[in-house]
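hey so i finally got around to running the thing on that chain from the lab meeting. sorry it took forever, my laptop kept dying and i had to restart like 3 times. anyway pasting the input first so we r on the same page abt which one it is
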Amino acid sequence: FLHICHTCIFQILKQFIVTGQPKEIIVFLVFLQGYPLTNVALKGEASQSSTLSFATASKAIDGRRNSFYSNGFCSHTAEDETNPWWRVDLQRSFTITAVKVTNRGDCCAERLDGAEILIGNLLDQNGNQNPSCGMIKSLDGTPTYTFQCNEMEGRYIIVIIPGKKTYATLCEVEVFIYTVVLFCFSCIYH
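ok and heres what got predicted. didnt touch it at all, straight out
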């Protein structure tokens, strides 16, 4: 694409330079460049259905994937709550490519079994009507798992454990978007 643009521009410039006609040519070059996935959860605001001790919702978006609850980097809801949930408000809607969830690695990983990851712009009924990106069936001892969300749109990412009386512990939730930057250059010839 870049070679074709350069060739085309030089042919146009050559034509006007050879004829000696004083013309104004404005040429715009546009480049799209994709950057690595960006974790937009880091700038979000987290909340959860309840909080156990020091384990606030914001601990799950602090950028640390430390999976040991005792180290103080995990969120945790209060004891035996029905349908516990955790949510991050990204402050605006994004096209989400993936959500990465880090569960507890020291114990109790099975508590997140059956949790659903919802993405959308709705907060009615706590966002339960938003579409699902995936369900945590079992993380099989691997504390971090990535869910591909196929470019779902949403401002809110909700992790909910429906139909269970349990705890929700999340050590990190990362929400990825693919950033595309547009570069535009212009040339003016008189």
